[in-house]
Structures are given as structure tokens and as C-alpha cells.
Write a structure and sequence with these properties.
There is one protein chain. This protein has about 200 residues and is α+β, with helices and mostly antiparallel strands. About 35% of the residues lie in helices and about 25% in strands. It has 6 helices and 12 strands. The chain has a 5-stranded mixed β-sheet, sandwiched between helices. It has a 3-stranded antiparallel β-sheet with strand order 7-6-10. A two-stranded antiparallel sheet has the order 1-2. Strand 1 and strand 2 form a beta hairpin. Helix 1 packs across helix 2 and helix 4 packs antiparallel against helix 5. The chain is globular. The two termini are about 20 Å apart. This is Glutamine amidotransferase domain-containing protein. InterPro entries: ChyE-like (IPR044992), Class_I_gatase-like (IPR029062), GATASE (IPR017926). Pfam families: GATase (PF00117).
């Protein structure tokens, strides 16, 4: 969507993917406000399907009117098992979903008209869904054990994570997760949106 601080023309784009970021989706920086406005227009006016991952989930929720901010419960890291809502169970075809996590910001509530897909003890809104328009997840389906291990180590070495959080994350980093299933659901979501 953004290249050299310029938003791209979406006319020949099938879908938009909003990725993770080191930035805060709740920040008041001009580029964050501009991105939020552009996302809102993409979903509501251009009617392009939008997929959000981590920061992408948060900035998408903000653009649609939800409150986003720092989680008082702290960081959620490594593989976490999520309880799927009824909509989440239908979409993913199972009762729980495991996904790599690396965040301390959260979406506090689902925006009106959008369905929450899952919850965890630290984060009540783990995904958003509106058929053919919006699909987002708080976690990182694209992360594997190696990527997560490097992130945990770097953030521990830099003093961002204390020993307890670091060791807890490492103890679950290799747990089985549903990254491939989430990727398949995202692909199906985009293909379904093209049939409209």
C-alpha cells in the first residue's frame, strides 16, 4: 500500500496485506493517521479484501473504529493456544488454534459489524472477520521456531524481555502451530473475495 511514503493505486490489486511492524498502531504519528485513513477507504470504499497480521490486525481494527493500545498484561510471545469463537471454529474447522505470538499491543474490542475470531488469556480480540472484506490475526502465522527463537534472543539481549519471559517463550517456541492452516484460510478468503 505504501511505497516511498506514497499510497499505491489499488485499482489493479486483488487484496491488501498489512504486515507486522515495530511501530505502535495506536500512535499519533502522521504516517499512522494517514495509513489508518487509507485502510478505512480501502475497506469501505474500494471494497478490496484486507488481511492483517499483528500490527496489520491492530491498524486495521483502529481504522474500523476499535480501540487499540498497550496491553496491561504485557507481552504475549511464542506459540499460544487460542480459543476460537463460533465464527472462528467455522472458518478454521477446529476448536482451538495455535499460533506464534510477538506483541504487547492489543485490540480492545471488535469494531461494529466485524466478528472476533479467537481469544487468549492475555488478548480478547485475536482476529477479525467480515466475509470477503476483512481477515486478521493478532499472531504471526508466518513465523517458525527459528524466527521466533532469534526474536526472543534479540529482545532478551537488548533488555526488552526479562529472564522469565525469555525462558517461558523458549520453552514453547517449538510447539506445534497452525501457521499453514491460517495461510490456507487466508488464500481461500482472497479467492472467495475475487468471486464477488
Amino acid at each position: 500500500m505504501v511505497e516511498n511514503s506514497q499510497f499505491l493505486d489499488l485499482e489493479n490489486v486483488d487484496a491488501v496485506l498489512l504486515t507486522g511492524s515495530k511501530h505502535d498502531a495506536w500512535a499519533d504519528d502522521q504516517w499512522i493517521r494517514d495509513l489508518t485513513s487509507n485502510i478505512r477507504e480501502t475497506v469501505l470504499t474500494n471494497k478490496k479484501p484486507v488481511v492483517g497480521i499483528c500490527f496489520g490486525h491492530q491498524i486495521l481494527a483502529r481504522a474500523l473504529g476499535a480501540q487499540v493500545g498497550r496491553n496491561e498484561a504485557g507481552w504475549e510471545v511464542s506459540v499460544e493456544k487460542l480459543a476460537l469463537t463460533e465464527a472462528g471454529k467455522k472458518l478454521f474447522g477446529k476448536d482451538t488454534l495455535s499460533i506464534q505470538q510477538m506483541h504487547r499491543d492489543i485490540v480492545f474490542d471488535a469494531p461494529g459489524g466485524y466478528t472476533n475470531l479467537a481469544t487468549s488469556p492475555k488478548c480478547e480480540v485475536q482476529g477479525l472477520y467480515l466475509p470477503k472484506r476483512v481477515l486478521s490475526v493478532q499472531g504471526h502465522p508466518e513465523y517458525n521456531e527459528g524466527i521466533m527463537s532469534c526474536l526472543l534472543e534479540a529482545r532478551h539481549d537488548n533488555g526488552i524481555f526479562d529472564d522469565k519471559l525469555y525462558k517461558d517463550g523458549l520453552s514453547r517456541v517449538g510447539d506445534s502451530h497452525d501457521g499453514w492452516l491460517i495461510a490456507k484460510v487466508v488464500a481461500r478468503f482472497i479467492l472467495d473475495a475475487k468471486t464477488e
